[in-house]
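Pair request: fold both.
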Amino acid sequence: MTTDDSSADVVIVGGGPAGRALATRCIARQLTVVVVDPHPRRMWTPTYSAWADELPSWLPGEVIASRIQRPSVWTNGQKTLDRAYCVLNTPSLQLFLCDASMQFRAMSARTLSSTTVVCVDGSQLTGSIVIDARGTDPTVTTAQQTAFGVIVDRALASPILGGNEAWFMDWRRDNGTSDADAPSFLYAVPLDGERVLLEETCLAGRPALGLRELEARLRTRLHNRGCEVPDDAPVERVRFAVEGPRGSSPDGIHRFGGRGGLMHPGTGYSVASSLAEADAVAKAIADGGDPNAALWPRSARAVSALRRVGLNALLTLDSGDVATFFEVFFDLPVEAQRSYLSDRRDASATAKVMAALFRSSPRHVRKTLMRAPFLR
Protein backbone atom coordinates (compact mmCIF):
# COMPACT_ATOMS: atom_id res chain seq x y z
CA MET A 1 0.00 0.00 0.00
CA THR A 2 1.37 3.40 -0.95
CA THR A 3 1.65 6.22 1.57
CA ASP A 4 1.94 8.90 -1.11
CA ASP A 5 -0.51 11.24 0.57
CA SER A 6 -0.99 14.90 -0.28
CA SER A 7 -3.24 17.82 0.49
CA ALA A 8 -4.73 20.83 -1.27
CA ASP A 9 -7.37 23.45 -0.69
CA VAL A 10 -9.74 21.62 -3.03
CA VAL A 11 -9.79 17.98 -4.10
CA ILE A 12 -11.97 17.37 -7.17
CA VAL A 13 -12.86 13.81 -8.12
CA GLY A 14 -13.51 13.63 -11.86
CA GLY A 15 -11.48 15.30 -14.59
CA GLY A 16 -14.16 15.88 -17.21
CA PRO A 17 -15.39 19.32 -18.34
CA ALA A 18 -17.26 20.00 -15.09
CA GLY A 19 -14.41 19.01 -12.79
CA ARG A 20 -11.79 20.89 -14.76
CA ALA A 21 -13.97 23.97 -15.16
CA LEU A 22 -14.34 24.15 -11.39
CA ALA A 23 -10.64 23.49 -10.90
CA THR A 24 -9.78 26.29 -13.34
CA ARG A 25 -11.95 28.81 -11.55
CA CYS A 26 -10.65 27.74 -8.12
CA ILE A 27 -7.08 28.25 -9.32
CA ALA A 28 -8.10 31.70 -10.61
CA ARG A 29 -8.93 32.47 -6.96
CA GLN A 30 -5.49 31.31 -5.77
CA LEU A 31 -6.72 28.00 -4.38
CA THR A 32 -4.60 24.88 -4.70
CA VAL A 33 -6.37 22.04 -6.49
CA VAL A 34 -5.82 18.32 -7.00
CA VAL A 35 -7.94 16.54 -9.60
CA VAL A 36 -8.39 12.80 -9.12
CA ASP A 37 -9.04 10.99 -12.40
CA PRO A 38 -7.89 7.56 -13.60
CA HIS A 39 -7.06 8.84 -17.10
CA PRO A 40 -6.15 12.55 -16.85
CA ARG A 41 -4.37 12.57 -20.23
CA ARG A 42 -7.09 10.81 -22.20
CA MET A 43 -8.33 13.04 -24.99
CA TRP A 44 -11.98 14.01 -24.84
CA THR A 45 -13.97 12.90 -27.87
CA PRO A 46 -17.66 13.80 -27.27
CA THR A 47 -19.30 16.68 -29.08
CA TYR A 48 -20.14 19.46 -26.61
CA SER A 49 -22.62 22.13 -27.64
CA ALA A 50 -24.41 25.04 -25.99
CA TRP A 51 -26.57 28.03 -26.69
CA ALA A 52 -24.18 30.94 -27.19
CA ASP A 53 -25.78 33.04 -24.46
CA GLU A 54 -25.16 30.28 -21.88
CA LEU A 55 -21.37 30.43 -22.08
CA PRO A 56 -19.49 32.40 -19.37
CA SER A 57 -17.45 35.46 -20.26
CA TRP A 58 -14.21 33.88 -19.02
CA LEU A 59 -14.36 31.21 -21.73
CA PRO A 60 -12.26 32.34 -24.74
CA GLY A 61 -13.78 32.45 -28.20
CA GLU A 62 -11.17 29.99 -29.48
CA VAL A 63 -13.03 27.10 -27.86
CA ILE A 64 -16.01 27.66 -30.17
CA ALA A 65 -15.57 25.56 -33.30
CA SER A 66 -18.85 26.39 -35.01
CA ARG A 67 -21.46 29.07 -34.44
CA ILE A 68 -24.94 28.60 -35.88
CA GLN A 69 -26.81 31.89 -35.86
CA ARG A 70 -30.26 30.46 -36.56
CA PRO A 71 -30.65 26.70 -36.13
CA SER A 72 -33.78 25.02 -37.47
CA VAL A 73 -36.22 22.50 -36.04
CA TRP A 74 -38.78 20.30 -37.73
CA THR A 75 -41.74 19.27 -35.61
CA ASN A 76 -44.95 19.19 -37.64
CA GLY A 77 -43.28 21.67 -39.98
CA GLN A 78 -40.10 23.71 -40.18
CA LYS A 79 -39.23 26.53 -37.80
CA THR A 80 -36.08 28.63 -37.55
CA LEU A 81 -34.94 29.66 -34.08
CA ASP A 82 -33.67 33.17 -33.48
CA ARG A 83 -31.04 32.09 -30.95
CA ALA A 84 -27.38 31.41 -31.68
CA TYR A 85 -26.08 27.92 -31.00
CA CYS A 86 -22.44 26.82 -30.66
CA VAL A 87 -20.49 23.62 -31.10
CA LEU A 88 -17.39 23.66 -28.93
CA ASN A 89 -13.92 22.68 -30.08
CA THR A 90 -13.41 19.75 -27.73
CA PRO A 91 -9.57 19.60 -27.86
CA SER A 92 -9.33 23.38 -27.37
CA LEU A 93 -11.76 23.24 -24.45
CA GLN A 94 -9.76 20.47 -22.81
CA LEU A 95 -6.51 22.35 -23.31
CA PHE A 96 -7.95 25.56 -21.88
CA LEU A 97 -9.33 23.75 -18.82
CA CYS A 98 -5.90 22.46 -17.88
CA ASP A 99 -4.14 25.21 -15.95
CA ALA A 100 -0.40 24.68 -15.50
CA SER A 101 -0.78 24.71 -11.71
CA MET A 102 -3.50 22.05 -11.75
CA GLN A 103 -2.29 18.88 -10.04
CA PHE A 104 -3.55 15.47 -11.14
CA ARG A 105 -3.68 12.14 -9.36
CA ALA A 106 -3.99 9.46 -12.04
CA MET A 107 -6.05 7.11 -9.94
CA SER A 108 -9.63 6.07 -9.27
CA ALA A 109 -11.19 7.14 -6.01
CA ARG A 110 -12.33 4.34 -3.70
CA THR A 111 -14.02 6.31 -0.92
CA LEU A 112 -14.89 9.96 -0.40
CA SER A 113 -15.67 12.04 2.64
CA SER A 114 -16.24 15.78 2.93
CA THR A 115 -12.47 16.39 3.30
CA THR A 116 -10.75 13.15 2.28
CA VAL A 117 -10.37 10.96 -0.80
CA VAL A 118 -8.90 7.48 -0.51
CA CYS A 119 -7.69 6.14 -3.86
CA VAL A 120 -7.81 2.52 -4.97
CA ASP A 121 -4.10 2.10 -4.19
CA GLY A 122 -4.66 3.21 -0.60
CA SER A 123 -3.16 6.68 -0.99
CA GLN A 124 -5.06 9.49 0.65
CA LEU A 125 -5.68 13.07 -0.37
CA THR A 126 -7.07 15.66 1.98
CA GLY A 127 -8.52 19.07 1.30
CA SER A 128 -10.55 21.78 2.93
CA ILE A 129 -13.30 20.47 0.71
CA VAL A 130 -13.88 17.50 -1.60
CA ILE A 131 -16.01 17.88 -4.73
CA ASP A 132 -17.46 14.88 -6.55
CA ALA A 133 -17.65 15.70 -10.29
CA ARG A 134 -17.70 12.21 -11.79
CA GLY A 135 -20.81 12.68 -13.92
CA THR A 136 -24.00 10.66 -13.92
CA ASP A 137 -24.18 6.89 -13.71
CA PRO A 138 -26.57 5.18 -16.15
CA THR A 139 -28.61 2.44 -14.49
CA VAL A 140 -31.62 0.41 -15.57
CA THR A 141 -33.86 2.68 -13.51
CA THR A 142 -32.59 6.08 -14.69
CA ALA A 143 -33.82 7.86 -17.78
CA GLN A 144 -31.07 7.99 -20.39
CA GLN A 145 -30.25 9.78 -23.60
CA THR A 146 -28.75 7.71 -26.41
CA ALA A 147 -27.50 8.67 -29.86
CA PHE A 148 -25.61 7.29 -32.82
CA GLY A 149 -23.92 9.68 -35.22
CA VAL A 150 -21.61 9.84 -38.20
CA ILE A 151 -19.26 12.65 -39.19
CA VAL A 152 -19.22 13.52 -42.89
CA ASP A 153 -17.93 16.22 -45.20
CA ARG A 154 -20.09 19.30 -45.64
CA ALA A 155 -20.77 18.52 -49.27
CA LEU A 156 -22.09 15.08 -48.38
CA ALA A 157 -24.33 16.58 -45.70
CA SER A 158 -25.79 19.19 -48.04
CA PRO A 159 -29.00 17.24 -48.89
CA ILE A 160 -29.55 16.63 -45.17
CA LEU A 161 -29.19 20.26 -44.15
CA GLY A 162 -31.34 21.33 -47.10
CA GLY A 163 -30.09 24.91 -47.04
CA ASN A 164 -30.39 25.26 -43.26
CA GLU A 165 -27.47 26.10 -41.00
CA ALA A 166 -28.23 23.15 -38.74
CA TRP A 167 -31.01 20.91 -37.50
CA PHE A 168 -31.31 21.24 -33.75
CA MET A 169 -34.18 18.74 -33.84
CA ASP A 170 -35.73 17.09 -36.88
CA TRP A 171 -38.62 14.82 -35.86
CA ARG A 172 -39.63 13.71 -39.36
CA ARG A 173 -40.46 10.02 -39.68
CA ASP A 174 -38.27 9.29 -42.71
CA ASN A 175 -36.09 7.16 -40.45
CA GLY A 176 -38.19 4.05 -41.05
CA THR A 177 -40.47 4.43 -38.04
CA SER A 178 -44.17 5.01 -37.50
CA ASP A 179 -46.16 6.77 -34.79
CA ALA A 180 -46.29 3.45 -32.92
CA ASP A 181 -42.49 3.41 -32.49
CA ALA A 182 -40.55 5.23 -29.80
CA PRO A 183 -39.51 8.54 -31.38
CA SER A 184 -36.03 9.75 -32.23
CA PHE A 185 -34.85 12.86 -34.03
CA LEU A 186 -32.03 13.95 -36.30
CA TYR A 187 -29.45 16.31 -34.85
CA ALA A 188 -27.33 17.75 -37.67
CA VAL A 189 -24.72 20.41 -36.86
CA PRO A 190 -21.50 21.65 -38.48
CA LEU A 191 -18.54 20.75 -36.30
CA ASP A 192 -16.32 23.21 -38.17
CA GLY A 193 -15.94 24.57 -41.67
CA GLU A 194 -15.41 21.12 -43.20
CA ARG A 195 -17.33 18.52 -41.19
CA VAL A 196 -20.92 17.92 -40.12
CA LEU A 197 -22.24 15.61 -37.39
CA LEU A 198 -25.40 13.71 -38.37
CA GLU A 199 -26.84 12.03 -35.29
CA GLU A 200 -30.00 10.04 -34.54
CA THR A 201 -30.99 10.84 -30.98
CA CYS A 202 -33.33 9.37 -28.40
CA LEU A 203 -33.95 12.44 -26.23
CA ALA A 204 -34.90 10.49 -23.10
CA GLY A 205 -36.12 7.01 -22.42
CA ARG A 206 -36.55 4.64 -19.53
CA PRO A 207 -35.22 2.49 -21.12
CA ALA A 208 -33.71 4.50 -23.96
CA LEU A 209 -33.43 3.24 -27.52
CA GLY A 210 -30.41 1.05 -28.20
CA LEU A 211 -27.50 2.23 -30.31
CA ARG A 212 -28.03 -0.42 -32.99
CA GLU A 213 -31.61 0.69 -33.44
CA LEU A 214 -30.52 4.33 -33.68
CA GLU A 215 -27.82 3.44 -36.21
CA ALA A 216 -30.38 1.64 -38.38
CA ARG A 217 -32.76 4.59 -38.18
CA LEU A 218 -30.00 7.05 -39.05
CA ARG A 219 -28.84 5.12 -42.09
CA THR A 220 -32.43 4.75 -43.30
CA ARG A 221 -33.04 8.47 -42.86
CA LEU A 222 -29.85 9.49 -44.64
CA HIS A 223 -30.49 7.06 -47.50
CA ASN A 224 -34.00 8.46 -47.93
CA ARG A 225 -32.51 11.94 -48.27
CA GLY A 226 -29.86 10.98 -50.77
CA CYS A 227 -26.89 10.82 -48.42
CA GLU A 228 -24.82 7.63 -48.64
CA VAL A 229 -22.27 7.60 -45.85
CA PRO A 230 -18.85 6.02 -46.50
CA ASP A 231 -18.12 2.87 -44.50
CA ASP A 232 -15.06 4.49 -42.93
CA ALA A 233 -16.87 7.62 -41.70
CA PRO A 234 -16.06 8.42 -38.05
CA VAL A 235 -18.88 7.59 -35.65
CA GLU A 236 -20.06 8.96 -32.34
CA ARG A 237 -21.90 6.83 -29.76
CA VAL A 238 -23.73 8.47 -26.88
CA ARG A 239 -25.29 7.04 -23.74
CA PHE A 240 -25.69 8.85 -20.43
CA ALA A 241 -28.21 9.29 -17.66
CA VAL A 242 -30.25 12.49 -17.81
CA GLU A 243 -31.16 12.31 -14.13
CA GLY A 244 -28.94 11.85 -11.14
CA PRO A 245 -28.43 12.82 -7.50
CA ARG A 246 -29.22 16.36 -6.41
CA GLY A 247 -27.38 18.59 -3.95
CA SER A 248 -25.07 17.12 -1.33
CA SER A 249 -24.94 13.48 -0.39
CA PRO A 250 -25.96 12.42 3.13
CA ASP A 251 -22.32 12.32 4.26
CA GLY A 252 -21.77 15.93 3.26
CA ILE A 253 -19.82 15.43 0.04
CA HIS A 254 -20.46 18.27 -2.36
CA ARG A 255 -21.25 17.44 -5.97
CA PHE A 256 -20.80 19.40 -9.17
CA GLY A 257 -21.64 19.03 -12.85
CA GLY A 258 -23.94 16.28 -13.99
CA ARG A 259 -23.41 14.45 -10.71
CA GLY A 260 -24.48 17.59 -8.88
CA GLY A 261 -27.79 17.96 -10.69
CA LEU A 262 -26.64 20.47 -13.32
CA MET A 263 -27.82 18.34 -16.22
CA HIS A 264 -31.08 19.55 -17.72
CA PRO A 265 -33.23 16.40 -17.48
CA GLY A 266 -35.29 17.39 -20.49
CA THR A 267 -32.37 17.98 -22.85
CA GLY A 268 -29.33 16.16 -21.46
CA TYR A 269 -27.23 19.35 -21.54
CA SER A 270 -24.88 19.98 -18.62
CA VAL A 271 -21.55 21.30 -19.90
CA ALA A 272 -22.72 24.90 -20.39
CA SER A 273 -24.34 25.06 -16.95
CA SER A 274 -21.22 23.54 -15.38
CA LEU A 275 -19.05 26.16 -17.06
CA ALA A 276 -21.42 28.94 -16.07
CA GLU A 277 -21.74 27.85 -12.42
CA ALA A 278 -18.05 27.14 -11.79
CA ASP A 279 -17.31 30.73 -10.76
CA ALA A 280 -20.08 30.89 -8.15
CA VAL A 281 -18.96 27.63 -6.57
CA ALA A 282 -15.26 28.61 -6.66
CA LYS A 283 -16.09 31.95 -5.00
CA ALA A 284 -18.04 30.23 -2.25
CA ILE A 285 -15.12 27.88 -1.57
CA ALA A 286 -12.58 30.71 -1.57
CA ASP A 287 -14.76 32.76 0.79
CA GLY A 288 -15.19 29.85 3.18
CA GLY A 289 -18.89 29.62 2.41
CA ASP A 290 -21.20 26.78 1.44
CA PRO A 291 -20.79 25.89 -2.26
CA ASN A 292 -24.03 23.93 -2.16
CA ALA A 293 -25.90 27.06 -1.06
CA ALA A 294 -24.29 29.01 -3.91
CA LEU A 295 -25.25 26.34 -6.43
CA TRP A 296 -28.69 25.49 -5.06
CA PRO A 297 -30.59 28.49 -3.68
CA ARG A 298 -34.29 27.86 -3.13
CA SER A 299 -35.18 29.17 -6.59
CA ALA A 300 -32.76 26.73 -8.28
CA ARG A 301 -34.22 23.81 -6.32
CA ALA A 302 -37.68 24.84 -7.47
CA VAL A 303 -36.57 25.03 -11.11
CA SER A 304 -34.99 21.58 -10.78
CA ALA A 305 -38.24 20.13 -9.46
CA LEU A 306 -40.18 21.69 -12.34
CA ARG A 307 -37.72 20.35 -14.89
CA ARG A 308 -38.16 16.85 -13.50
CA VAL A 309 -41.88 17.23 -14.04
CA GLY A 310 -41.01 18.17 -17.62
CA LEU A 311 -38.93 15.00 -17.97
CA ASN A 312 -41.84 12.93 -16.66
CA ALA A 313 -44.06 14.57 -19.27
CA LEU A 314 -41.67 13.63 -22.08
CA LEU A 315 -41.47 10.05 -20.84
CA THR A 316 -45.27 9.82 -20.55
CA LEU A 317 -46.31 11.31 -23.90
CA ASP A 318 -47.52 8.93 -26.57
CA SER A 319 -44.95 8.52 -29.30
CA GLY A 320 -47.02 10.39 -31.86
CA ASP A 321 -47.50 13.37 -29.53
CA VAL A 322 -43.81 14.17 -28.94
CA ALA A 323 -43.44 16.23 -32.13
CA THR A 324 -46.69 18.04 -31.28
CA PHE A 325 -45.30 18.89 -27.84
CA PHE A 326 -42.18 20.42 -29.37
CA GLU A 327 -44.27 22.18 -32.00
CA VAL A 328 -46.00 24.02 -29.16
CA PHE A 329 -42.70 24.66 -27.35
CA PHE A 330 -40.91 26.17 -30.34
CA ASP A 331 -43.94 28.34 -31.05
CA LEU A 332 -43.22 30.15 -27.77
CA PRO A 333 -41.23 33.42 -27.86
CA VAL A 334 -37.49 32.83 -27.81
CA GLU A 335 -37.23 34.39 -24.33
CA ALA A 336 -39.67 31.81 -23.01
CA GLN A 337 -37.66 29.03 -24.67
CA ARG A 338 -34.51 30.44 -23.10
CA SER A 339 -36.14 30.55 -19.66
CA TYR A 340 -36.98 26.85 -19.74
CA LEU A 341 -33.84 25.59 -21.44
CA SER A 342 -31.20 27.71 -19.71
CA ASP A 343 -32.35 29.65 -16.62
CA ARG A 344 -31.65 27.71 -13.43
CA ARG A 345 -32.79 30.34 -10.96
CA ASP A 346 -36.07 31.81 -12.19
CA ALA A 347 -38.72 29.39 -10.98
CA SER A 348 -41.52 31.80 -11.83
CA ALA A 349 -40.42 32.05 -15.47
CA THR A 350 -40.06 28.28 -15.74
CA ALA A 351 -43.52 27.75 -14.28
CA LYS A 352 -45.01 30.28 -16.70
CA VAL A 353 -43.47 28.49 -19.67
CA MET A 354 -44.83 25.16 -18.49
CA ALA A 355 -48.27 26.69 -17.96
CA ALA A 356 -48.17 28.20 -21.46
CA LEU A 357 -47.19 24.81 -22.90
CA PHE A 358 -50.11 23.19 -21.10
CA ARG A 359 -52.63 25.79 -22.26
CA SER A 360 -51.47 25.62 -25.89
CA SER A 361 -51.33 21.83 -26.17
CA PRO A 362 -54.17 19.77 -27.65
CA ARG A 363 -56.67 18.43 -25.14
CA HIS A 364 -55.46 14.83 -25.25
CA VAL A 365 -51.87 15.99 -24.68
CA ARG A 366 -53.00 18.11 -21.72
CA LYS A 367 -54.56 15.04 -20.13
CA THR A 368 -51.21 13.27 -20.34
CA LEU A 369 -49.30 16.28 -19.00
CA MET A 370 -51.60 16.45 -15.97
CA ARG A 371 -50.25 13.08 -14.81
CA ALA A 372 -46.59 14.08 -15.02
CA PRO A 373 -46.23 15.69 -11.54
CA PHE A 374 -47.33 12.45 -9.90
CA LEU A 375 -44.88 10.16 -11.68
CA ARG A 376 -41.41 9.13 -10.58
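--- second member of the pair ---
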Amino acid sequence: MRIPVPGYDAPGLPLKPVRDPSLSLIALSGLDPSGPVMVEVPLVQNNSSFIAANVLAGRRVGFAERYGRGSDHEPIEHRAPFRRALEILRQAGVQLLPVPAQRVDETLQFNLHTHNEIDELVNEHRLDALVSDSRSAAFHAACWHGYPVFGEPLGDGAMLWFYGARWSKDSLAALVQGYRSARRLPDGQDGLPAALNNPTV
Protein backbone atom coordinates (compact mmCIF):
# COMPACT_ATOMS: atom_id res chain seq x y z
CA MET A 1 0.00 0.00 0.00
CA ARG A 2 1.40 3.31 -1.11
CA ILE A 3 0.98 6.33 1.15
CA PRO A 4 0.43 9.51 -0.89
CA VAL A 5 2.87 12.28 -0.12
CA PRO A 6 1.13 15.68 0.26
CA GLY A 7 1.85 18.03 -2.66
CA TYR A 8 3.07 15.44 -5.09
CA ASP A 9 -0.30 15.11 -6.74
CA ALA A 10 -0.40 18.89 -7.59
CA PRO A 11 1.47 20.49 -10.49
CA GLY A 12 4.73 21.99 -9.39
CA LEU A 13 6.12 25.46 -10.08
CA PRO A 14 8.23 25.79 -13.24
CA LEU A 15 11.93 25.72 -12.66
CA LYS A 16 12.36 29.02 -14.63
CA PRO A 17 9.39 31.24 -13.82
CA VAL A 18 8.42 33.77 -16.49
CA ARG A 19 9.50 37.20 -15.27
CA ASP A 20 7.62 40.42 -15.86
CA PRO A 21 9.51 42.22 -18.68
CA SER A 22 8.94 45.57 -16.93
CA LEU A 23 10.83 44.31 -13.87
CA SER A 24 13.75 43.41 -16.09
CA LEU A 25 13.78 46.87 -17.60
CA ILE A 26 13.66 48.45 -14.15
CA ALA A 27 16.57 46.31 -13.07
CA LEU A 28 18.59 47.32 -16.10
CA SER A 29 17.87 51.00 -15.47
CA GLY A 30 19.31 50.80 -11.96
CA LEU A 31 16.21 52.26 -10.30
CA ASP A 32 14.81 50.85 -7.10
CA PRO A 33 11.08 50.31 -7.78
CA SER A 34 10.34 50.55 -4.05
CA GLY A 35 11.97 53.98 -3.75
CA PRO A 36 10.96 57.41 -5.04
CA VAL A 37 11.64 58.09 -8.70
CA MET A 38 13.24 61.44 -9.53
CA VAL A 39 12.87 62.74 -13.06
CA GLU A 40 14.82 65.75 -14.27
CA VAL A 41 12.51 68.05 -16.26
CA PRO A 42 14.28 70.57 -18.51
CA LEU A 43 13.40 74.23 -18.06
CA VAL A 44 10.86 75.59 -20.51
CA GLN A 45 12.09 78.87 -21.89
CA ASN A 46 10.21 81.51 -23.82
CA ASN A 47 11.21 80.78 -27.41
CA SER A 48 8.97 83.35 -29.10
CA SER A 49 12.03 85.13 -30.51
CA PHE A 50 13.34 81.85 -31.91
CA ILE A 51 9.96 81.11 -33.50
CA ALA A 52 9.80 84.59 -34.99
CA ALA A 53 13.30 84.20 -36.39
CA ASN A 54 12.33 80.89 -37.94
CA VAL A 55 9.22 82.37 -39.50
CA LEU A 56 10.93 85.48 -40.85
CA ALA A 57 14.34 84.07 -41.82
CA GLY A 58 14.90 84.45 -45.53
CA ARG A 59 11.92 86.75 -46.09
CA ARG A 60 12.58 89.62 -48.48
CA VAL A 61 10.87 92.89 -47.59
CA GLY A 62 11.15 96.12 -49.51
CA PHE A 63 10.95 99.62 -48.08
CA ALA A 64 10.81 102.95 -49.88
CA GLU A 65 14.23 104.55 -50.01
CA ARG A 66 13.34 107.33 -52.45
CA TYR A 67 10.59 108.74 -54.58
CA GLY A 68 11.53 108.57 -58.19
CA ARG A 69 10.39 108.67 -61.76
CA GLY A 70 12.87 108.31 -64.57
CA SER A 71 16.06 110.11 -63.65
CA ASP A 72 14.39 112.33 -61.05
CA HIS A 73 14.88 111.02 -57.49
CA GLU A 74 14.03 112.43 -54.08
CA PRO A 75 15.42 110.63 -51.01
CA ILE A 76 13.01 109.77 -48.20
CA GLU A 77 14.03 110.66 -44.65
CA HIS A 78 12.50 108.01 -42.40
CA ARG A 79 11.40 108.74 -38.85
CA ALA A 80 12.92 106.98 -35.83
CA PRO A 81 9.88 104.70 -35.10
CA PHE A 82 9.93 103.36 -38.66
CA ARG A 83 13.70 102.78 -38.51
CA ARG A 84 13.21 100.82 -35.26
CA ALA A 85 10.57 98.66 -36.95
CA LEU A 86 13.00 97.95 -39.80
CA GLU A 87 15.66 96.99 -37.26
CA ILE A 88 13.24 94.56 -35.57
CA LEU A 89 12.59 92.92 -38.93
CA ARG A 90 16.30 92.76 -39.72
CA GLN A 91 17.17 91.16 -36.37
CA ALA A 92 14.42 88.58 -36.95
CA GLY A 93 16.14 87.43 -40.14
CA VAL A 94 14.36 89.56 -42.75
CA GLN A 95 16.41 90.71 -45.71
CA LEU A 96 15.54 94.40 -46.21
CA LEU A 97 15.80 95.86 -49.69
CA PRO A 98 15.55 99.59 -50.46
CA VAL A 99 13.28 100.19 -53.45
CA PRO A 100 12.00 103.31 -55.24
CA ALA A 101 8.43 104.45 -54.71
CA GLN A 102 6.19 106.44 -57.02
CA ARG A 103 4.94 109.79 -55.83
CA VAL A 104 1.34 110.17 -56.89
CA ASP A 105 0.56 113.21 -58.99
CA GLU A 106 -1.63 114.01 -61.96
CA THR A 107 0.90 112.61 -64.43
CA LEU A 108 0.74 109.18 -62.77
CA GLN A 109 -3.02 108.75 -62.56
CA PHE A 110 -3.25 106.87 -65.85
CA ASN A 111 -0.22 104.70 -65.05
CA LEU A 112 -1.66 103.71 -61.66
CA HIS A 113 -4.77 102.35 -63.33
CA THR A 114 -2.83 100.25 -65.83
CA HIS A 115 0.22 99.08 -63.87
CA ASN A 116 0.31 98.16 -60.19
CA GLU A 117 3.39 99.41 -58.35
CA ILE A 118 3.20 96.67 -55.69
CA ASP A 119 3.11 93.87 -58.27
CA GLU A 120 5.96 95.40 -60.24
CA LEU A 121 8.23 95.77 -57.20
CA VAL A 122 7.38 92.31 -55.82
CA ASN A 123 8.18 90.69 -59.16
CA GLU A 124 11.29 92.74 -59.96
CA HIS A 125 12.95 92.31 -56.54
CA ARG A 126 11.39 88.91 -55.61
CA LEU A 127 9.83 90.40 -52.50
CA ASP A 128 7.53 88.83 -49.94
CA ALA A 129 6.14 92.21 -48.87
CA LEU A 130 6.58 95.96 -48.86
CA VAL A 131 6.49 98.15 -45.74
CA SER A 132 5.96 101.85 -45.23
CA ASP A 133 5.17 104.39 -42.56
CA SER A 134 1.60 105.72 -42.55
CA ARG A 135 3.09 109.24 -42.51
CA SER A 136 4.46 108.42 -45.96
CA ALA A 137 2.42 107.93 -49.14
CA ALA A 138 4.70 105.15 -50.39
CA PHE A 139 2.85 102.22 -52.02
CA HIS A 140 -0.49 103.46 -50.65
CA ALA A 141 -2.11 104.37 -53.97
CA ALA A 142 -1.18 100.95 -55.40
CA CYS A 143 -3.09 99.07 -52.67
CA TRP A 144 -6.18 98.46 -54.78
CA HIS A 145 -9.24 96.56 -53.65
CA GLY A 146 -8.33 92.89 -53.10
CA TYR A 147 -4.69 93.59 -52.25
CA PRO A 148 -3.80 92.55 -48.67
CA VAL A 149 -2.53 95.19 -46.28
CA PHE A 150 -1.97 94.96 -42.52
CA GLY A 151 -1.29 97.72 -40.04
CA GLU A 152 0.76 97.58 -36.85
CA PRO A 153 1.13 100.55 -34.46
CA LEU A 154 4.49 102.27 -34.37
CA GLY A 155 3.83 103.76 -30.94
CA ASP A 156 3.63 107.42 -31.95
CA GLY A 157 0.16 107.48 -33.46
CA ALA A 158 1.44 106.29 -36.83
CA MET A 159 1.10 102.83 -38.36
CA LEU A 160 3.52 100.43 -39.99
CA TRP A 161 1.81 99.20 -43.17
CA PHE A 162 2.62 95.79 -44.67
CA TYR A 163 1.63 95.50 -48.34
CA GLY A 164 1.58 92.34 -50.44
CA ALA A 165 0.66 91.09 -53.88
CA ARG A 166 -2.94 90.07 -54.47
CA TRP A 167 -2.22 86.35 -53.89
CA SER A 168 -0.13 86.78 -50.72
CA LYS A 169 -2.71 87.37 -47.97
CA ASP A 170 -1.85 84.27 -45.91
CA SER A 171 1.93 84.62 -46.19
CA LEU A 172 1.69 88.34 -45.45
CA ALA A 173 -0.36 87.65 -42.32
CA ALA A 174 2.28 85.13 -41.14
CA LEU A 175 5.00 87.74 -41.70
CA VAL A 176 3.09 90.31 -39.63
CA GLN A 177 2.57 87.74 -36.87
CA GLY A 178 6.31 87.05 -36.88
CA TYR A 179 6.96 90.78 -36.57
CA ARG A 180 4.59 90.90 -33.60
CA SER A 181 6.46 88.07 -31.88
CA ALA A 182 9.82 89.67 -32.55
CA ARG A 183 8.61 92.99 -31.21
CA ARG A 184 7.19 91.28 -28.07
CA LEU A 185 4.06 93.32 -27.74
CA PRO A 186 3.30 94.02 -24.05
CA ASP A 187 -0.40 93.32 -24.50
CA GLY A 188 0.37 89.79 -25.76
CA GLN A 189 -1.90 89.89 -28.78
CA ASP A 190 -2.46 86.45 -30.27
CA GLY A 191 -3.86 85.19 -33.50
CA LEU A 192 -3.47 86.50 -37.01
CA PRO A 193 -3.92 90.24 -37.52
CA ALA A 194 -7.11 91.49 -39.09
CA ALA A 195 -6.82 92.41 -42.74
CA LEU A 196 -7.46 95.98 -43.75
CA ASN A 197 -8.27 97.23 -47.22
CA ASN A 198 -7.41 100.68 -48.50
CA PRO A 199 -6.35 102.16 -45.13
CA THR A 200 -6.55 105.88 -44.55
CA VAL A 201 -3.14 107.42 -44.33
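Observation on the second member. The mean pLDDT is 75.
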